[in-house]
Hints:
Layout: H1 12-16, H2 27-45, E1 50-51, H3 53-60, H4 64-72, E2 78-79, E3 83-85, H5 86-96, E4 103-108, H6 112-119, H7 122-125, E5 128-135, E6 144-146, E7 149-153, H8 157-164, E8 168-171, H9 175-188, E9 192-195, E10 208-211, H10 214-222
Parallel strand pairs: 4-5, 4-8, 5-7, 8-9, 9-10
Antiparallel strand pairs: 1-3, 2-3, 6-7
Helix pairs in contact: 2-5, 3-4, 8-9
Amino acid sequence: MSSTSYPPARNNRTRNRKKPRRDEIPDIVIGRLPIYLRTLRQMTAEGKEITSSQELGQILGISSAQIRKDLSHFGEFGKQGTGYNVTYLCRQLEKILNVDHTWPVVVVGAGSLGTAIANYQGFAKRGFQIVAICDEDPGKIGKEVAPGLVVEDCARLSARIREEGVKIAVIAVPAHAAQRVADMLVEAGIRAILCYAPTTLKVPPSVRVEYIDPVIHFQHMTYYLR
């Protein structure tokens, strides 16, 4: 079977359908797209050329109808009776998620967590590059915590963000310092924050915040451990 990617079959109904605005697409749908993309990349690595909503659904535990509905918000990506070309769909999702290029990222906090994040090799493969890590602790400033990454003084953070054109930041500081850091990041032009601190940040509506708190996930799981 050929591995050549192909565009979807077109018809008048497809051409005439109005493309929804970004703010019209439910956030829960956007949240599933990276999961689809991860699975498709795994398929690509395994040499798989064609898949279907049924196969994706079986792998992910999501109904095939839901997968088709999610994808339909953005266009028609498959051919009826044939399924999806894995490479083509993967590329389209990369464009939709805006990860068809590399985003520079800064990390605030050079403790155990921040250092681990800076050393994680999986970011670069998925469209993100840690370009700077900073801390206020004089004992950490100047130390190399990852290949090519030396801890910088947070006093230079705003300048570094502007120099590198950074829009995404990771907060890996204690909860009591997180809001102050977030304020500094927003002031410097950051538009998206991944927060590991166990707290809720107050930011302008134009700034997107995602939270990763392992305790929350533990507590979610323990509910079911009856």
